[in-house]
Amino acid sequence: MSTENEGKAVQGDPAAPSVPPTPPVPPSAPPAPTGAPGAGPAPASGPSAARPADAAHPTDPAHPTDPAHANAQEAPAAGEAPTVHAAPMAPGAHHAAPETHAAHAAPAGGWPPPPPAVPSWGAQHAHVPPAPAAPRKRTGGLVAAVLAAALLAGGIGGGIGYWAAERGDNGAGSTTVSSGEAPASFKRDPGTVAAVAAQALPSVVTIQAKSGGSQGEGGTGTGFVYDQEGHIVTNNHVVASAADGGTLSVTFSDGKSYDAEVVGRAEGYDVAVLKLTNAPKGLKPLPLGNSDKVAVGDSTIAIGAPFGLSNTVTTGIISAKNRPVASGDGSGASNSYMSALQTDASINPGNSGGPLLDASGAVIGINSAIQSAGSGFGQSQAGSIGLGFAIPVNQAKNVAQQLIRTGKPVYPVIGATVNMNEKGEGAEIAARGTGGTPSVTPNGPAAKAGLKPGDVITAFGGHQIDSGPSLISEIWTHKPGDSVEIAYERDGRTATTTVVLGERTGDS
User: Fold this and answer.
1) pTM exceeds 0.85
2) Residue 352 annotated to the active site
3) Does 237 qualify as catalytic in the annotation?
């Protein structure tokens, strides 16, 4: 318990909250009567109603309080002025000096009141009845009074602040700050997330796919407007259930829905193109960026319908590039491979097929897969853990254009079968192909480049290869006819060669 507070003067009015005392205003003392003993200036300190024995005088350290007289009224000695104690006040009485001390009344305003005035030495003054002796132990009461005063002061302060803010009393400044513009007229600067989202949302759609079976199974995904003719780009796995005899509907951010049909699908790329059957006029395609120019650390904005929550916007950065990702149903029959853009923007089931935008609002990828703790890659119902993967838009654009032209995908190939299960030093060309066929296609791209069964491909086009899926992911970033340098190992020796990519049409 602090003794500093206990040594301060306490107002004598028991009906009023205790407030910290203010230094008394030196009174204009009347002239002392002739011959009055001990006439002189008034002391600077005010009275103390109750002061602990070890507390120093609040304003006169040269006169310590006698413990024996701390709580008692004494008669003044010769030549001394009597000690004036604050007398109890009747309920409802105002804190003001008695009529005999009207010259010492509180200043204008009345709060907080000054302590009772002390007359000059030897001055005539009205008789002040002695205050009753204070109880010996007042610590608890004093602390309670201080706490009550603090709480009340907080309430009064809040009330005064509100009153002043409402009325502008005496020109005082408001305690609140108002916005200069109403939210409806507030304009977001170009390049902010809000501005990019507002520009892109009208061109992002939520896709409802239902199968043609009796159960009507399906799911929800996302897509975006590719051109003014009504083509929508999305993931193959979003629309696969409705591709054969099912139904597709597309809903825009304004709530308007349209029927759609599949133009073409590429299982290996996990890309599909739809077309609105009755496309509205004024469609605004999203601008396509250049995924080859993306750098790690660039800002990203993902838009989609995670868990069916349409028009959801999340943000993050590019956390990695050229990340080899294989996603699919786990059987290997319809797996897709991508050299993905990795982002920490929150991506969940339902975001699939939606755009991954850069800070300017251009599409740099198609959100396609997430890493879920303990469940591997793919669209499980687990939530985002900050590892999302998008198909680079340069690859998706090539696939979409091919699907719009022919309805079928075209894949670049090297003409060799590689081991898809092992991971480590590279992608090993298998000893035999599927169904006992040769693992290196006779007169194919790999055979012409001099590759043989057992060779381990360690780099493709300057990118490190550690497995069969990573090799396919890199191959599919190119086009048929591209010449690519390959590094490989044979019998413990490293060599390089150049392969001219062939092509395969359709999914098989």
Assistant:
1) no
2) yes
3) yes
